[in-house]
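Problem 12. The chain below contains 151 residues. Write out its predicted structure in token notation.
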Amino acid sequence: MVKVGTYNGCPTLSLPNGNYQFTFGLQKAKLIVEHFDDILEFVHGQTLDPTPTEVPFVIPVEYEPEKRSLAQWIVHNGGVKESTLPGEMRDLITGEQSKRAKGIPPGFLNNKRGRGLDEIVDEANSDNWQIRDESHLLEMLEAEQREAYSL
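Solution.
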């Protein structure tokens, strides 16, 4: 059964897909409607064994640690469990009205794979970030975010 719902105040559509729901928002729904004929052509033209010429080649993005911010490094390494953040830092990261604040990449807060601040400090130091403790980690993240706001 198709269900209409909301996520963070935005409309969503959930389609049944076996034991779970395939859910997407209004923007993706509009895109699907706009390209419906192309999608039909794609579905009807698929075979079980595509030849290499049917699959586009994608050049992978190289991991360049020296170009990543600390927040990006944290995302790359699994994110932070929200429950481990002090309230003020949680507010700073999530921003106003539950929207992610500027300078904080998607996936920073990750309650499934994320880890506690103490674990992040240890792993960051093994990757040469030179973070003294959890307080210093939070100070560095705040400084990164202030820099993002100043741009």
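Discussion. The first strand starts at residue 3 and ends at 7. Students who got a different answer should revisit the alignment rule from Section 12.3.
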